[in-house]
Design goal:
417 residues, alpha/beta, FAD/NAD(P)-binding domain, eight-stranded mixed β-sheet, 15 helices, globular, binds iron/sulfur cluster
């Protein structure tokens, strides 16, 4: 076990703090409807068999359980955990990731039972978290699922998360498990120009989960000199430098870029953020990460222009303030900030326009904007269940109450079996 996971002693200690709340607030807050109350109860014995059964519970609710365990923010189950009223919430995502890692390391994870084919074919376009979750649901319902992925690796936007937080091998572990769910084939390096055409090719339905493939623009002079976060995180070696790096943006992806720059040898990394530091939507873990890596944050600052001067980049910045309703520039505060080896732009991403059609459903970031992996899983599960209903007319009856703490939640409590 490496430091991504809890030690056996830490795992035991966290699980012993669970109050086994009858109302399961942790489950209600989980976008994927995973139930920490149940998997902690099951794993508490600490044996391989207990981890096997607990892992099975997790993966039936969330087939990307290990990825989510390593990446889930503290805004879902941990925010709802009753234990916070006594001391601090249980580190539920870390418990989840550790249980799965233990079960997989011990080789006790059982594949799901053989599924009966239903004679229908569906296509899933995009092998990111939402697409993979949809594949899992549809395969367990007996569909023959073909996955079309435009690149040579599965994972979608999750591939861009630095290895220090989400090693690629964990994405592969979850995917290898999903591959045992049923009849799944995949076409890598295959771009689908128009998903509606897949219906003409004989597929009974299509899920499109292609994420947001384009970086958002800032609309400032010289922004073409900046590297997009997608290009930067996809190949950080290409931008390796011992010099200074500027990161434009203050969200979780900007943090990934800043930490990657420091890990890649940058002497000084500075994030430029229009808002106040307390308003940055970051978890405690991400804030701690910035401190640990000695990343500077220049807040209430807007970058107005980027220019190249003698082989380095100069930023023109000005201070911002709230005018009661929105942020505005403060006059006469523009200064030049020279000497950056790279400027990385991490201010959001944009989806392609949708091609609407019956039995072509959208899921994940391309459907409802950028989100966490677990919300993408919820979206993929929902889209798969909705497609199944559209194809067969069968609607699942069990509907979970939608928690206000999440932006997107799986509508069905039904597990994937
Ligand atoms: S809310 Fe927290 S303490 Fe209660 S069952 Fe869930 S994990 Fe355990």
């Amino acid at each position: 076990m490496n430091k991504l996971y809890l030690t056996t002693a830490q795992l035991k200690s966290e699980m012993e703090r669970c109050l086994y709340c009858a109302e399961k607030p942790c489950m209600k807050a989980c976008p994927a409807n995973c139930s920490p109350a149940d998997f902690i109860t099951t794993a508490k014995a600490g044996t391989d068999d207990a981890y096997r059964r607990a892992a099975s519970l997790i993966l039936k609710a969330n087939p990307l359980g290990q990825m989510c365990g390593l990446t889930c923010p503290d805004q879902f189950c941990m925010k709802a955990c009753s234990r916070q009223h006594l001391d601090v919430p249980i580190k539920i995502p870390a418990v989840q990731a550790t249980i799965l890692e233990k079960a997989r390391s011990a080789g006790v994870l059982e594949p799901p039972e053989k599924v009966t084919p239903n004679g229908r074919n569906v296509a899933v376009v995009g092998a990111g978290p939402a697409g993979l979750a949809a594949v899992a649901v549809l395969a367990r319902k007996g569909y023959s699922v073909t996955v079309f992925e435009g690149s040579d690796r599965i994972g979608g936007a999750a591939k861009l998360i630095p290895d220090a937080r989400l090693p690629y091998e964990v994405i592969e572990k979850d995917w290898e498990y999903i591959k045992t769910f049923g009849d799944i084939t995949w076409q890598m390096n295959f771009r689908v120009a128009n998903p509606v055409d897949l219906l003409k090719d004989g597929y009974d339905g299509v899920i499109v989960a292609v994420g947001e493939p384009h970086s958002a623009k800032m609309g400032i002079p010289g922004e073409g000199l900046a590297v997009s976060f997608m290009d930067y995180l996809a190949d950080p070696e290409k931008y390796k430098t011992s010099g200074n790096v500027a990161i434009l943006g203050g969200g979780a992806v900007a943090v990934d870029c800043a930490v990657t720059a420091r890990d890649n040898g940058a002497e000084f990394v500075e994030m430029f953020v229009r808002r106040r530091i307390p308003d940055m939507k970051l978890t405690m873990e991400e804030r701690k990460w910035l401190l640990d890596k000695m990343v500077d944050i220049t807040s209430m600052t807007r970058v107005k222009k980027i220019e190249e001067v003698n082989g380095a980049y100069t930023l023109h910045t000005c201070k911002t303030r709230y005018n009661g309703t929105k942020l505005e520039d403060i006059p006469d505060t523009t200064i030049k900030r020279p000497g950056f080896a790279h400027v990385v732009m991490a201010v959001g991403s944009i989806a392609d326009p949708k091609t609407e059609a019956e039995k072509v459903l959208y899921a994940g970031d391309c459907s409802h904007g950028g989100s966490t992996i677990v919300e993408a899983v919820a979206s993929g599960k929902n889209a798969a269940n909705e497609l199944h209903a559209a194809i067969t007319g069968e609607v699942e009856e069990t509907v979970c109450p939608v928690s206000r703490t999440v932006t997107y939640k799986a509508k069905s409590c039904a597990v994937i079996e």
